[in-house]
Amino acid sequence: MKRVEFTNTVLRDGHQSLAATRMRTAQMLPALADLDALGFYQLETWGGATIDSCLRYLGENPFERITALKKGAPETPHGMLLRGQNIVQYTSFPDDVVETFIRCTAGRGMDVLRIFDALNDPRNLETAIRTTLASGKHARGEICYTISPVHTVEAFVEFGEDLVDLGCQSVSIKDMAGLITPKIAYDLVSALKKRVSVPVILHSHDTAGLAASSYLAAVEAGVDVVETSVVPFANGTSQPDTLRMMALLAGHPRCPDYDRERLARLRAHFEKVYADLKAFTSPANERVDVDILTYQVPGGMLSNFRNQLKEQGMAERYDEVLKEMPVVRAALGYIPLVTPTSQIVGTQAMLNVKFGRWKMISQPAQDVVLGKYGKTPGPVDRDLLALVEKQSGKKAVTVRPADLLVPGLPALRGKLREKDLPDDDETAVLFAMFPVETEKLLRGEKPAAAPAAAPAAPPAPKSGSRPKKYLMHIEGKEHTVEVEEVGG
């Protein structure tokens, strides 16, 4: 039997899940030789919240990080996480911006793009997949796994087939909240292996303590790759540790044999880095949290929820808000909880508890209802749809959301020239997503001081970022409010 392979996530998801994405490029460089020599299937090194963090907190050019990491680990394919039409932000961007971002990323040497859509809407993936393939890079399609009455093994398999039809060269089950059980992992991997001809990957988080056992079941079912990290940036809200998974597979004919001495050196190095980042780590993210099985909140979001509510003067209503999240999610068509939908659902649950159910509806929640994020997995609650259409004066859209957007690059280049800043492709796409932070970087300004504890994926407004204005509807009246967001 062919040995299962591991992708290592320590340089991206490992520290995003356990240290708020605060690992600097300089802290990664000493680990590259050993990581490269281990012969992993891939190294996940970029994307997700790393680009936001580089600009907002670390004062680094994120594209320069790709160059540095590729130079230090040239033999192993490097991968990144891309939110489809959202790129690495919370909103959809025009096709020309998405295409340019991918070409820039490919030009820097990124090998594999993990492409997902929060709603599993294939239309939101078309541009990213097409451009990745045209750039000569590997398109890896992600199936966002979640649990609901409309999410079945058959539905996930059909979406996997859609991804392959779009051109994806591998398919991954993206279990962002660590919800997949061993039985479902076995059934889903088995079904995918029968129906698609490309490699099948399982990516999970050990938040609820299920990931390692689900990996074992997936190995039995024939999964090609599972994703692991390196302690202390492993387990808990991150991926299972590499040595831990090798021990669990010991004696199995598919057990891989990664160099334990190198893994021990990596652990020693990352222990020092973890200590340096202690202001951004939390014991809550390191332990098993079974609440995740009820509320389905990904990554470090649940463990930080109490602090978020405290800042909103709602600490005593923590349990109420958590119980409201499934209500909001169901009304929004059982959307999977992954960036940006987890933030949208969490924030709306807080508003429902604070002001009364649907008395104040955030603009992002309205946009989900109106189809501006794409087709929801299940139907949106009819009464909520009618309320949003009445209050907004808009009807729900059924076309691909990006079809409603005009090309963005000409205006972006114009704004950059007005500011006497470079208007090259890399600058333009960073400015499209993070205009304030990109301008500060280009002008040599230091980023704002990082907060003492920064959540990986906040469900509610949080201080420390630029405020955005949203139009809210409270009992039929319009109000403009400012909400601050932090990248997840």
Strand numbers in spatial order across the main sheet: 1-2-3-4-5-6-7-8
Number of strands: 10
Please bin the fraction of helical residues: 40-55%
Alpha-carbon distance between the two ends: 39 Å
The oligomeric state is single chain
Structural class given helices, strands, pairing?
alpha/beta
Q: Which consecutive residue ranges, at least 5 long each, have pLDDT under 50?
A: 450-488
Beta content comes to 5-15%
List the helices and strands and how they pair.
Elements: E1 5-8, H1 10-19, H2 25-28, H3 32-37, E2 42-47, H4 50-58, H5 62-72, E3 78-82, H6 95-107, E4 112-115, H7 126-134, E5 138-144, H8 153-165, E6 170-175, H9 182-195, E7 200-204, H10 211-221, E8 225-228, H11 242-248, H12 260-276, H13 283-286, H14 292-295, H15 301-311, H16 318-331, H17 341-355, H18 363-369, H19 382-392, H20 409-418, H21 425-433, H22 435-442, E9 467-474, E10 477-484
Parallel strand pairs: 1-2, 1-8, 2-3, 3-4, 4-5, 5-6, 6-7, 7-8
Antiparallel strand pairs: 9-10
Helix pairs in contact: 6-7, 6-21, 8-9, 9-10, 16-17, 20-21, 21-22
